[in-house]
Amino acid sequence: MGMQADGKVVLVTGANRGIGLAIVEEALRRGAKKVYAAVRRIETARPLVEQHGNVVVPLHVDLQQPETIASAAEHASDVDIVVNNAGVLKPKSALEADAVDTLEFEMSVNVYGLMRVARAFAPILKANGGGALVQLNSVASLLSFPDFATYCASKAASYSITQALYHTLKNQQTQVLSVHPGPIATDMAREAGFEQTSAGPEVVAKALFDALAEGQFLLFPDPFAQQIGAAYEGFAHNVVIPGVGEG
Ligand SMILES: NC(=O)c1ccc[n+]([C@@H]2O[C@H](COP(=O)([O-])OP(=O)(O)OC[C@H]3O[C@@H](n4cnc5c(N)ncnc54)[C@H](OP(=O)(O)O)[C@@H]3O)[C@@H](O)[C@H]2O)c1
Fold first, then answer.
1. Average pLDDT per consecutive 10 residues, the chain (247 residues; last block may be shorter)
2. How far, in Å, is the centroid of ligand 1 from the Cα of 89?
3. Is the pTM of this model over 0.85?
4. CATH number at residue 176
5. How many domains does the chain have?
6. 40 CB under 6 A from ligand 1?
7. Fewer C-beta within 10 Å: the chain N or C terminus?
């Protein structure tokens, strides 16, 4: 059995817009006791505080600045559910001149950011009884889209780290959930020029808390993602979830 949001303390990175904002709102709808809105610029969390009052606590977190993650962990020592949602995408194919620079940037946020968050918060989750770590990955973690080659590579790497965390954090009763949306209607999708989106951010947020409550490791929340998830299911359940040497 997994974890309900009701009565829990939740932290969300990239909480000010897009999928992160929808996750904050869904956590509050489900009765979260407190939500830490982790944002790059504190003023961007102001509308959330104005709407919800002091149940929302803004925290400064820039995934490229490790000291902000360490400082957030000191402040949020009561957290039960950490959702690492923040991420970046720059449309870039593999052969473009600055593809390596773009991949380095996307790795620094999408992969090293996850590793920093996991390292800072794992001891806190353990001390609080286990809790949960949720990572926003993507269908791009499993499938490369050539016009977004560097982003897909970074999301494949973040999924790989998420798998490692799933197996490692089991030992301290921390639940790990890997979320793999398809194209979702946010600024990221609009700026990347996705022609069609599969769902709105609220669909991801609702499915995320349902999956946490059910104790799932993998979530494919929207219709586009579910097609990829269905094709991947056998490998996931026979190989990824049992883990090498554990099955
Ligand atoms: N939208 C999609 O189609 C889609 C599909 C699959 C997966 N995802 C994943 O879902 C997550 C959320 O995506 P979204 O569509 O909501 O994106 P978005 O609308 O572009 O919002 C991105 C969020 O990440 C924050 N952020 C960016 N760089 C950061 C950094 N260095 N440190 C901390 N926060 C940072 C942004 O803060 P600022 O406002 O300060 O820039 C913003 O809050 C991402 O991990 C993305 O890869 C999205």
1. 95 98 98 98 98 97 98 98 98 98 98 98 98 98 98 98 98 98 98 95 98 98 98 97 73
2. 8
3. yes
4. 3.40.50.720
5. 1
6. yes
7. N
